[in-house]
Amino acid sequence: MAGERKCRALEGCDLILVSEAPWRATPVADRVVLRAAGYARHSGRGLCTNHYWQAARAGTLDQYPGKIRPSTNVAEDWATISLSQNKLESRAYRIREAAPRMGMTEHALEKALDRLGIAS
Mean pLDDT per 10-residue run, the chain (120 residues)? Predict the structure, then answer.
């Protein structure tokens, strides 16, 4: 299946994760076959369903950081970085320079800034 990645459980789970949409689109009988072949549904934070719920019950989900950044963090980081950059440079150039420093892709940073209504 496309976009294969392994479960990030600290115990060393070898299951290959499948995104929610393709997993739900797969007939139940085929899911059983996939499960036997080492595939599992991705539940979040890079974990299979079993390990996600185990971590949730144990209160250890914070050991597995999520991929979503709060908009306040994006706005604060952008403000800090853009102050240090030349305002005459284009927004696209500043995004290209800032995105790696913020740990984001250029596309994700541009979309986040658009959602926040930050024009420059």
Answer: 72 84 89 91 86 90 78 83 71 83 84 83
